[in-house]
Amino acid sequence: MPDEPGGAGVPARRVLVDPEGPLLVEGPVEVVLEDGSTVRSDRVMVAVCACGRSARYPWCDTSHRRPARTRDGARTRDG
Ligand code: FES
């Protein structure tokens, strides 16, 4: 990333945005959670949950594919 520490010689980390799914980040990845703790994935490509519905948050567990439920039990497409 030319504008970040490390200079132009450091390859940029690539993030793929799926508008209906996770952020796909070239790993390894460390994510700092709201409580300040850090979790790490050493996968080559890491799916980071962007919908907030994953039971394995911050990692995507494909819950974004399932219809969400409202308080009255009705299903919605967007979670
Ligand atoms: S983006 Fe897949 S579970 Fe949230």
UniProtKB/TrEMBL annotation:
Record carries keyword Disulfide bond: no
Native species: Streptomyces botrytidirepellens
Gene Ontology molecular function: any one: 2 iron, 2 sulfur cluster binding
Ranges of residues in domain Iron-binding zinc finger CDGSH type: 26-70
UniProt keyword annotations, A-Z: 2Fe-2S, Iron, Iron-sulfur, Metal-binding
GO cellular component: cytoplasm
InterPro entries assigned: FeS-contain_CDGSH-typ, MitoNEET_CISD
Record-linked Pfam families: zf-CDGSH
Official protein name in the record: CDGSH iron-sulfur domain-containing protein
Superkingdom of the organism of origin: Bacteria
